[in-house]
Amino acid sequence: MKLKRDQGVEIVSDPDRVEASLWRRLRFEGNERCRETLFTRYMPLARALAAKYLKAQQTRSIERGDLDQFAFEGLLQSLDRFNPLKGVPFSAFARPRISGNITDGMARMSDMTAQLGHMRRSRRERLVSLQAAEISGDALDQLADLAFDLAIGIMLDDTGIVESADGADNRVNVYEGLAWRQAQAALTEEISSLPENEGAVIQHHYQNGLNFATIAELLRLTRGRISQLHRSAIERLRRRLRHFQER
Amino acid sequence: MLCADQDLADVMQAVQNETGDELLRLDRLIQQYREDPRLHFLRGSILAGIGRPIEALSSFREAVKLAPDFAIARFQLGFFLLTSGEAAEALSVWGPIALLPDGHYLRLFVGGLTHLIRDEFPETIAQLEAGIASNQDNPPLNRDMHLIIGRVRQIESAGPVAGSADSSMSATSLLLGQLTGSGRLH
User: Fold this and answer.
1) pLDDT digits 0-9 by tens, A173-199
2) Interface contact flag, A11 B121, Cβ < 8 Å
3) Which among A8, A12, A13 is the nearest to B119, CB-wise?
4) Distance (Å) from the C-alpha of residue A247 to the closest C-alpha of chain B?
5) Among partner residues A2, A4, A17, which is closest to B84 by beta-carbon distance?
6) What is the mean pLDDT of residues A90-109?
7) Looking at the structure, do residues B124 and B62 belong to the same domain, yes or no?
8) What is the pLDDT of residue B183?
9) Which burial class, exposed, middle or buried, applies to B136 when counting CB atoms under 10 A from its CB (0-12, 13-18, 19+)?
10) Which domain holds residue A86?
């Protein structure tokens, strides 16, 4: 039977020390990547608190994606304020802050914004990012490219980038066409070879459901830069998957 | 300047008796003898044992910085990094352990753990067992290595089962008894 990779290191890893190591490298050794790792590690906590809020609000129409974004904002703020030397577990420190941010965020949100909905805003954000590409060449080709880029986005939504948090493979879905599934599989392969920041944007946006503003905050980049990285990643994926486009 | 052996023995006794003021006493000694690597190593061990890993690592590093040939401290610093998920850093810290003579238990343990990092399990077991056989100085370390061997055997027989270290393993390895024995590089 094939063994899982890095199992040797796993069996001697102590979860508390691994986490302490992330905090140490982030706070005292300036390793910003650890912030992202810690964020990903505590995303389930943020999501769980968003779900709890949603369950408690039975009268108002709220989109889950919005709650998640507020929870993620609260998580980011907690990451930046936490002192790992104080002996308090991060989850205990972050929990009230995340919940507070969800409550504040919902209070700030206007009805109109709420109606627009998280998913629609997210898709619009992607479209704006992709349309920002330099206009040149044949208009029909550009349209075809844009359509293909959007299709990549839909595929990414569907793949969950191969694995969801529970490890289930979500690739087989309503789009049962062989070509679609082959393209999805190829796409999954290609994502792992994207440049680091582009891969991070794709992972956080499509797999983790973060909007561009939250990713910008997480990676300490501007929102415009995240949009550029998104476009660049999708274009790179399109070039690598061109044979599917030409079928 | 190094502190008197009796002072060190007194603090170690306080640690064993869990008097509650052991860290305070140790810190006082460190203020007096800042360049004694044994004190920093002991401090690292205590902090690791009470769940203050960030400060523990800092103390271990200080011990190795003050005495690069303090082999047991170097081994434990690497082991601490490995258990913190920093395998590459652990290997780097362990580098000078290769200067110990052939058959030295620390060299064999490092060899075994290096195989472990690479998921080379039969070689891991062989090297760790050889290390245990040649280690007469440091029984707590042998217990740790036995625990690792047990885990490796479990994985080998059960296939891909995720798991993390038994907490008793890393705790015992860092506790007392480490300051004695032939832990110096040659």
Assistant:
1) 444 566 666 777 777 788 888 898 999
2) no
3) A8
4) 40
5) A17
6) 91
7) no
8) 45
9) exposed
10) 14-115
